[in-house]
Amino acid sequence: MTRIVAGTLGGRRIAAPPGAGTRPTSDRVREALFSAVQAEVDLDGARFADLYAGSGAVGLEALSRGARHVLLVESDPRAARVIRENVAALRAGPAARLVTGKVATVLAAGPDGEPYDVVFADPPYAVPDEEITALLAALVGGGWLAPDALVVVERSRRTREFDWVEGITAERSRRYGETTLWYGRRS
Description:
This protein is an alpha/beta fold.
């Protein structure tokens, strides 16, 4: 079990997928992430995409903090089932949209309406840098990013910085234990 850190759903517990197949973003990292995001983006009414969503904790945290729409993308059917249960338990209803499928396939299909103000991607740490770069290119090329959108990628602290693509400017990185958050801005 993990919990929503703050906002209207703050303190509510949510389930995590069983087994070692997912690596939920820790409460500490989520708190730091949203502190940084909210310093740069007004989440009230924002559209937020949580790619490789796992338990959905990051996207549901965004809803709790005021996002009007959250897209949760997860390829593992067991994890997607947990997300569905978490959305129902929190009564997040139509504000949270779950898509079960590979992130690359979902991005290739284009956004579901307006572009996103914040995109958070937490791929498995074993995903090669080239796939991260391809993901970023799909976000830019597919019209997923609003002007000045914030893009955050969670990686292992042991991985080097990946190549950002034209259309997203690298801003900074922050380390939290075994985790590094990389921040970029739609340019």
